[in-house]
């Protein structure tokens, strides 16, 4: 009996000695204008890591987190440091398109796989070998809402307010306009704003005179909340909506009662967990956050981590960045937190989209649209 015990202990000791520490770099805006997105995604990534952090061979996965401050240069510098100093095997980040492009650029140069939780611009992965995402593309997001408001809500006339400084807004505008026209709707006019603008009263006045059925605002939560509040103050009660740039609860906090009835596209609904992993994650999140509802970007951050984890699990016998990258790009019907995700060779994800509205300061599920 003693000999058997000694043999077992020897095997355990050997496996402990052989186990390695593996780093995943997390590149997110934790301060700055888009900090709400980054903080939410980081919550999800950390909880996902707490749920699954050891590979089948005993290797331990650690997170190395860097704040980009929402800046393009910081995004590139942070990614470079994580690769050169921390020897990360994969990168998660960033949250907005312009900054994600910088993370991807470093990933391509260093041949390190990058998984973006929320960068939705259509062309961001074009001709990239080491980049992928777990979110849908803007063409699907913009066209889905256009189809929904035209055919489900019977809105026939719309105006679009576009942030001319972001690829995110411009891409959503093109997709929404194309699909709305295709479905027989009419775009009465398009208005351009710039990120950081604070006074939208002149535009709102023009829109009031046009009297559309719907106002599409493919912008981030700061500008969207200001626009909604100013419209309400001016007595303009035209239905309006956005994309996932307002999915974070920060939009509701900023817009307050002006958010009532606001429609938007999203990738996850806390009250409709689509998979077993989703249910497990929600339980872990509630325990960690004391019953706080799970935001969209926390689910997306978690899925970015879990996709990398599953790829690493398939590479335990020969863990290297090429193997990890190949397996990320071979993801098929992964039962993720936010839904079922497949990732093709180009790195793009095939997945469903959720339509929500804001009612009584809460996000309320309305519909799901399959690709």
TrEMBL record:
Sorted UniProt keywords: Signal
Looking at the UniProt entry, the stretches that span the membrane are none
Which residue spans adopt a coiled-coil conformation according to this UniProt entry? none
Q: Which residues form the signal peptide?
A: 1-19
The segment(s) forming the Leucine-binding protein domain are 21-355
Spell out the family assignment given in the record's similarity comment.
Belongs to the leucine-binding protein family.
Q: What is this protein called?
A: ABC transporter substrate-binding protein
Species, as recorded? Campylobacter volucris
